[in-house]
Design brief:
There is one protein chain. The chain is mainly alpha-helical and 205 residues long. It folds into three domains: 80 residues, Up-down Bundle (Four Helix Bundle (Hemerythrin (Met), subunit A)), CATH 1.20.120.1200; 33 residues; 33 residues. Helices cover 74% and strands 0% of the residues. It contains ten helices and no strands. Helix 2 runs antiparallel to helix 3. The termini are far apart.
Length: 205
């Protein structure tokens, strides 16, 4: 057994144990943290399989964005764990059926790769998967990629607009009022009495 195989078994074991702790931990914050550990372990496995783009995407998207959102929601929302645990046995049959279907589908997909002799054949000219994915995205799937980027941009702008609503503790500017402003509104000359009398009064005292 070489070093790569040893690392594979180590990260796979950590991934399985962390996944079990996600569904068995009593504290939801601990479950979210174990899910972060599971994501990192899966990313390490993809790195061992030379799928660098998927590994980096998993860390950046899920660990860097989604899990941070999960942690904030879990920590800010006051969850009543007694009510959640009370419905565990009630929902267990449905959860067992759904979990069995998911396990069956994944086993069919995984075993198909072992049964198909062509799937195990290595490509004739191996190349960097990130380079191949970039060429595929910006050639054949350029327009769907741009549409997805536009949708994400609109979602980001909408999220920023929702967070920047009017509040008492924030100050904002109105661009329309700034455009309509005139020169006399920017500078106002006020006539004031001369300060000579006050200076003479102080000198006389």
């Amino acid at each position: 057994m070489n070093a790569i195989t040893g690392f594979f078994y180590v990260f796979a074991t950590i991934l399985v144990l962390a996944s079990l702790r996600v569904i068995t931990a009593r504290n939801p914050v601990h479950s979210a943290l174990f899910l972060v550990l599971a994501f990192f372990s899966a990313s390490a496995l993809w790195m061992l399989l030379e799928a660098e783009f998927l590994a980096i995407s998993l860390v950046l998207v899920y660990v860097g964005a989604v899990m941070v959102l999960f942690l904030f929601v879990v920590m800010m929302v006051d969850l009543n764990m007694d009510k959640i645990r009370a419905g565990f046995w009630k929902n267990l049959p449905v959860a067992t059926i759904v979990g069995s279907l998911i396990a069956f589908q994944m086993s069919v997909i995984l075993l198909r790769g072992f049964w198909d002799p062509q799937s195990a054949a290595a490509p004739a000219q191996p190349q960097d998967n990130t380079l191949a994915l970039g060429k595929l995205l910006f050639t054949e799937y350029l327009y769907p990629f741009e549409v997805a980027a536009l949708i994400l941009l609109v979602a980001m702008v909408a999220a920023i607009a929702l967070t920047l609503r009017k509040r008492k503790d924030t100050k904002s500017q109105t661009p329309s009022e700034q455009v309509r402003v005139k020169s006399r509104d920017r500078l106002k000359i006020v006539s004031m009495a001369a300060d000579v009398d006050r200076k003479q009064t102080k000198s006389g005292q």
